[in-house]
Amino acid sequence: xxxxxxxxxxxxxxxxxxxxxxxxxxxxxxxxGSSIILFLIGSILLLLAGLRFYVGTDYGTYMNLQIPxxxxxxxxxxxxxxxxxxxxxxxxxxxxxxxxxxxxxxIFFIMMALWKSSxxxxxxxxxxCFGAFFNFSxxxxxxxxxxxxxxxxxxxxxxxKIINYIILIFxxxxxxxxxxxxxxxxxxxxxxxxxxxxxxxxISGYILRFLVxxxxxxxxxxxxxxxxxxxxTLNSTGTSKTFLISIIPITFMILCxxxxxxxxxxxxxxxGVLSYIQAISVIVVLYSTIxxxxxxxxxxxxxxxxxxxxxxxxxxxxxxxxxISIAFIIIYLIVFLQLVMLKGGIxxxxxxxILNIYKDIF
Length: 362
Fold this sequence. Notes:
By secondary structure, the chain is mostly helical. Helices cover 69% and strands 0% of the residues. Helix 6 crosses helix 16 and helix 13 packs antiparallel against helix 14.
């Protein structure tokens, strides 16, 4: 199914290239065809997520603990925004509607982010699927809502509409409190990108790796949430090598781009912001031996790679593009195989549908 979705996304790219040259009498781009395909892709993903049955490591936790506890009136089980989703879904007669509504929100913001910010639907959707971001969303649902809203909010960060960006991050906070970590990223919009800065961020992060967990634990303890991310070995799936492999292609491409050759200043600024954020995801992987649940933190900071990847392929040297494309596909197929099918830490393989359950009943 993912292969079909990716093929559709690259087809949408071809349509969009043709549509850019056609302008209607109002002066607006005729991009209906590519937008319809993007809507179709979103619909397919919504069906996959909405019809699943005990797929995702957190599915059972929600079904057996967090949803019943929230409905019974227990306080602070989930964030305010997600509690409203739980009550809305439960009012529709079946807890499954909660998962449908959850992914309706996730997919809406992801598709809007791609529509506004991605210059390659094909590569963005490929990374969404085979980078295991979508599979992760079927487990870390609240976090993925926050991540999807963050992905959409980047459009406003790129355009220096900082108030809009902040409002969206606080909206994301209603679904997962960790969304607040996206606020300091504003600073990257005002720092000109230099490869030396990019490398310095990674090296500095590695040097300070033994201090950071203590600092994060102090912050989380004082804020009163998510300290368990740093103090438990639960959900530590031995995937550090796989994540390390996953960051190599994008890091290599960032270092290969000659930023002096970029004629579009706006595009250079966008790549710069996204590259700085990607540097943080590299640091998180380097912390994998000291932060047990680093995987969830990694997904938070690497989500923006879904937008970055299109810009990298556009601006990489033409002599390297084909070779890197092949290597990129092979590496991420391996990453998907390891994270989803072999390691099983996300809990989305094998896939089970509620349709099969009802078929067995009748």
